[in-house]
Amino acid sequence: MQCKKPFKLVPKLIKKSFLTYILEVIDPLFIFIRIMNFIPVEKELSSMKILVSGATGFIGQSLTKKLLNDSHEVFAYVRKVDNRLDKKIHQLTLPLLSEINEQFDVFINLAGENIAGKAWSEKRKKALYDSRVTLTDNIKNALNQPPKLVISMSAVGFYGLSINDIFYEDTPPSSGFAHKLCAAWEQSAKAFLNDGARVVIFRLGVVLGKGGALAKMRLPFKCGAGGPIAGGKQWFSWVHIDDVIKAIDEAIQDKSFSGVYNLVSPQIVQQGQFARLYANSLNRPAILPTPRWLLSIIFGEMASLLTEGPKIIPKRLIDQNFCFKYKQLDSALKAVEKSY
After folding, report:
1. Does residue 305 contact residue 116 with C-beta atoms inside 8 Å?
2. Is residue 38's pLDDT more than 60?
């Protein structure tokens, strides 16, 4: 037996094994994938019963629209019937809530009066506490069955007052009223763990969108009266509202979400940089500073929210491979302005 050109066998073997691979592996796999593409995944099939507090608020309006578009059955906790809500939303007062025997798939807790809306008098502090902690406790007590999932908001105010430190989800916080308020609110949400619920808590930065904080800043900045606050060196933790809604939606669909997350953009900016970029999105300058002493006179203790912003890192969301739609502040601000 002669084998004058042994290497001619190699292409034949390669050709044969490759063709065998194509026929035995690739084609069946390809057919399987094509078939599976016609079968909706579970999250597309499932319609959930979702209870929302704070449904008429800045985040709540965008969230309920998204939930309805996804064919979920949406219930809103209300103090009284509110005509601003979509007719498809079931409105429930506390007495009506206690009459429901069915289990909610999700309870999304957005309610809470604006912490930066007024100076922190003792009366105001009680109102802030009651609109968060007491409300959460009342809803929990009214439910005949615990929800399967609780998604509750908190805020980066949980970390207290500090410009120099870096805060991850497990970093010990500083003291102060904002920390005490957020900590109590989170504990109310975590109480659902005792009933077997999965609990997700998002510590929000300043939420950017058409409405909310930017709506209050827009007129001064349009008039050229925007600028750095107290020197502008404090950190400004922000997140676009689209990413807030996206994070809530992913927490609903993905059972690996659990515990506390810093829901802020991974881009870290100082307040002075925010002021320049926001003014630029409005084609205005940002040269009028606001001194610390003036804010202290006007707002008292609450001024610390504006002058002592901590540096917050969304470590757990990054580890979760969460994909932010808006990672850069300038593009987020320009997108908001386009919505007007």
Report:
1. yes
2. no
